[in-house]
Structure formats: structure tokens, C-alpha cells
Amino acid sequence: MRRSLILDSTIRFVFDSVVVFSVYLLFAGHNQPGGGFVGGLLLSVGLALRYVAQGNSAVRASIAIRPWTVLSLGLGIAATTAIIPLLFNDAPLDNAMLKLDLPILGLVKVPSAVAFDSGVYLVVVGLVLMVFEALGDDDADALDTKVPKL
Predict the structure, then answer these.
(1) For 36, which of 95, 121, 122, 123 could close a Cys bridge (C-beta 3.0–4.6 Å)?
(2) What is the pLDDT of residues 97-114, one digit of tens each?
(3) How many CB atoms lie within 10 A of CB 19?
(4) CB 107, CB 100: distance < 8 Å
(5) Dist. CA 78–CA 126, nearest whole Å
(6) pLDDT of residue 19
(7) Which of 11-15, 45-49, 72-76 has the lowest mean pLDDT?
(8) Cα dihedral 22, 17, 3, 56 sign
(9) Measured distance CA(112)–CA(109) in Å, rounded
(10) 97-102 and 106-111 as β-strands: parallel, antiparallel, unpaired?
(11) What percent of the chain has pLDDT over 90?
């Protein structure tokens, strides 16, 4: 199969910008439009572009851990963030604020919604990566374990 040099070059340039903008949307989503879902969708679009241009092996090289690990980690973070306020007799998903005085940045306020949105971000990306694994090419390194042929 012949690959397009222009498409490959464009994806290499655009992918990094998409990743940075998706992380920006993740962290800006608490005070402005965006958040974990939108940031995760944007990263998923970047991964989809890489999948179309370079195949499933390039997507696997972009994300060092397996898709189900990304999904499980995100679900665990989101669930833990939802349950922790119950331990302090607050409502589930109640928002708390952590204030940090950092040497260079000064006073930084970190809401607990950042953790929940990070979990949602990882769930969205993990689901899309699992779809790529299911639809992916049939090369030998597609699975961690060898599946016996029937």
C-alpha cells in the first residue's frame, strides 16, 4: 500500500498541535467551554487522523499503554472523585478547591473537578483506542498474547 507523503507530513505537524490543544481544553474547561469530554474527543480526532494516515501501529506507538488500561484508569479516577465527597458527608461530585502557593506561578487554585475531568478524558481516549484495536490491522503485534488458530 502506498502512503501519501503530504498526508504523512501534515499529520506529523498537526498531531502535536491537536494534543496540546486537547490538554488545554481539559484544564480550561472548568471556567470556560471545554473539559474532559471535549479534550478527549479532540485527542481522539488526532489519533484517528494518525490511524487513517499511518495505520494502527502508529497509534500504538503514540500511546505507550494499552487501551483497556487507559479506560480502566480513567474510570477509576472518575469514580474515586465522585465517591470521595461521600466520606466527608458531602454530596457526590461535590466540588472542593485546593490552593497551592507555587514558587514561580504564585497562587494556583485547583478544583476537584480537574480530577473528574481527567478521568473522563482518559475514558473517552481509551474507548476510541479500543475501537482502533478492534478495527485495526491484523499484524502479529496486535495482541499481547498469541491466540491459537482453530
Answers:
(1) 121
(2) 889 898 888 898 888 888
(3) 16
(4) yes
(5) 13
(6) 94
(7) 11-15
(8) negative
(9) 10
(10) antiparallel
(11) 39
- Give the three cell numbers for residue 16: 502535536
Dihedral over Cα of 133, 134, 138, 143: its sign: positive
- In degrees and rounded to multiples of 5, residue 22 shows phi and psi of -65, -40
Distance (Å, whole) CA 25 – CA 31: 10
Q: How confident is the model at residue 10 (pLDDT cuts 50, 70, 90)?
A: confident
Q: Show the 3-state SS of the chain.
A: CCCCHHHHHHHHHHHHHHHHHHHHHHHHCCCCCCCHHHHHHHHHHHHHHHHHHHCHHHHHHHCCCCHHHHHHHHHHHHHHHHHHHHHCCCCCCCCCEEEEEECCCEEEEEECHHHHHHHHHHHHHHHHHHHHHHHCCCCHHHCCCCCCCC
Give the pTM.
0.81
Residue at grid coordinates 491537536: 18
Minimal CA–CA distance to 50: which of 61, 40, 65, 39? Answer: 61
What is the amino acid identity at position 85? P
Residue 104, Cα to own-chain centre: how many angstroms? Answer: 28
